[in-house]
Fold:
Amino acid sequence: MLELAILGILQESPMHGYEIRKELTAKLGAFRAAISYGSLYPTLRRLQAAGWITEAGETPSAADEVPALTSRRGRIVYEITAEGKERFAERIAQSGPETYDDTGFGVHFAFFSRTDQATRLRILEGRRRRVEERREGLRDVLARAAERLDAYTLELQRHGLDACEREVRWLEELIANERSGRAPDGGTPQQENGPHTGETGDEVVNRKKE
Amino acid sequence: MLELAILGILQESPMHGYEIRKELTAKLGAFRAAISYGSLYPTLRRLQAAGWITEAGETPSAADEVPALTSRRGRIVYEITAEGKERFAERIAQSGPETYDDTGFGVHFAFFSRTDQATRLRILEGRRRRVEERREGLRDVLARAAERLDAYTLELQRHGLDACEREVRWLEELIANERSGRAPDGGTPQQENGPHTGETGDEVVNRKKE
DNA sequence: GGTTCGATGTATCGGTCCGATACATCGGCG
DNA sequence: CGCCGATGTATCGGACCGATACATCGAACC
Structure:
């Protein structure tokens, strides 16, 4: 999952580890807590070894100047490779059971703008099914075993049930919008935010910070 | 966390692993998914090695009859020991940072009926603070970086923000009830569901299933 | 002018927990 | 009578986290 998130965020711009963490925290903050360096850095190494990302700054022009005099400065900027983009496209479009848990769905949803509508619908409906099952489980407990449970546990179930019902409603809206070809906020269709129709690496990067 | 949950559930009744999983899934289902056997069984072993739980059925009377003729049948029933109850009481009453994440809070809350009111208030307020911080983070992103994010990511933030606001309100209610000495559902104070005032092992077990 | 302090930045280690898998038993149903 | 799903115990590799260490840099403060 982390792998997919990193490949996704690196398609917006090259970044170093610290920045990747910040950006992912901002983008996924709604569904999962901040990712840990203890998993980030090993994953970066793994992705580099697989050839899906490379250390940037290695433009063929100004390389290897001042080899080791002013000792190596800290940041290591990574950028995604063509193979990495391929890998991302494969993984973001296919779905398994882990696609519908909190973290997995969060990552897929956060990169919906890089997916086609059919995939978006499939993911949304899969997530809805998952949440509905969870909701039914909670309803069963509340209906069939309420007298076995203390007041606090019951309250916990009730709150969980409420959260499930809300999320299902949210997903219904998103699915309806998706079917009618609109952007998620229910407004008019936007012209620039559609799925990536192009194929080659001409990213429209519109980051303006820093 | 799993350790705490197991010690808690075993105070309701002795159980074998499969049953522990089912009961915990029902009790914690609102905040975390079903626990995995891959962590359950090793944890049971660890708890037994520490002397906090023991294999039940070892009543001093009818032990070691028919040693190995009808080969050992499957289920291994565990029960909590006096040391285990002590351990549980210590851990459930003290709080650290992990007490306020989803899983940790879920476990603590699910066993609120075995805690005193001061602890309950402390946990609820700690959780509220945690969720408020998360909420502020989401508000910041929405206010300060909205133009950088695509429509789907924005929708994700909005949904997360909404969930945070709801949970804060839920916690406010629980805290208010707690301060006024009422049971969680806001009704009249209940007579049997208060914290455990007794000390010794006379559990009032009222399980009726199976 | 020095110094302290928080943000930035890379990295590792131990531990917790999950997902897949294996395997064995038992009761019911065709 | 055999098959199958629920029950039941168990392990293994891997993903991810939390704590920790350490180093740099700019700003704020004395």
Chain B touches chain A through 48 residues (CB under 8 Å).
